[in-house]
Design a protein that fits this description.
Layout (H helix, E strand, L loop, with lengths): L1 H62 L4 E4 L4 E4 L3 E4 L3 E4 L5 H23 L3 H6 L5 H33 L5 E3 L1 H45 L3 H4 L2
Antiparallel strand pairs: 1-2, 1-5, 2-3, 3-4
Helix pairs in contact: 1-2, 1-5, 2-4, 4-5
Length: 231
């Protein structure tokens, strides 16, 4: 009689315990999702701001004729990747392209293509077009790293060529201009964006593992068979 009277109480306690565990899981899940949303919004704002800034700066640096400057007594001489200017009026395209200049042009265009690819992957466009899961975070991170490396090699080639010309012709006093330094900032931005995208992928993977662990642990503690306690 005493054993049978304890069975409903135990069943009620199990039900209450299961409800408490479900509520705890719901609270943890809600707080986890809210924290993710807040982090995601801040991350996305910062990420897209840096990404668009990097692309705009890279385009300006590519088309600008202010990579190298030579200050004359009467007028200035400016040179870019595609054009050469005397002063602020007379500009013309570079007719004779050396191997070093062609390498810098190609690397900068590859860097620009990688930046656009990284921006496309960051908006889940590949997954929507291919209709299957694509590791776009890793692709975006790799694309930004490639862009940063291409810009870095371009700057190294341009600087070494500049030093070689100055050693050959001592009369010339060439120096890097503002487009050169803008490319340096763009290179650093691309490397930072690649690192941010990689950390975001790691953050998402750890969050999914933590959430799946919480979902598997709570039902296991709540499933208690009364007949096993009182055979």
């Amino acid at each position: 009689m005493g054993r049978s009277s304890c069975v409903p109480d135990l069943q009620q306690n199990v039900v209450l315990s299961h409800r408490d565990n479900s509520r705890t899981l719901a609270r943890r899940t809600a707080s986890f999702i809210l924290a993710k949303i807040a982090t995601m919004n801040f991350y996305r704002y910062m990420y897209y701001a840096l990404a668009y800034t990097s692309i705009v700066m890279l385009i300006i640096a590519i088309v600008s004729p202010f990579w190298i400057v030579q200050h004359f007594e009467e007028d200035d001489f400016h040179m870019g990747l595609w054009s050469i200017c005397f002063g602020t009026v007379i500009c013309s395209y570079i007719s004779v392209v050396t191997a070093n200049l062609a390498a810098v042009q190609g690397l900068m265009l590859i860097a620009l293509a990688c930046c656009f690819l990284a921006l496309i992957c960051s908006q889940d466009l590949l997954t929507r077009c291919l209709k299957k899961k694509v590791p776009e975070n890793l692709i975006s991170s790799a694309a930004f790293y490639h862009a940063g490396v291409c810009i870095l090699f371009s700057l190294i080639i341009m600087y070494l060529r500049l030093r070689a010309i100055m050693m050959e012709v001592e009369v010339l006093h060439l120096s890097p201009d503002w487009a050169f330094f803008m490319s340096m900032f763009t290179c650093s931005f691309c490397l930072v964006l690649g690192t941010l995208r990689l950390l975001w992928q790691k953050h998402l993977v750890n969050g999914k593992k933590k959430l799946s662990t919480q979902r598997t642990v709570v039902p296991a503690t709540a499933s208690v068979d009364v007949k096993q306690l009182y055979p």
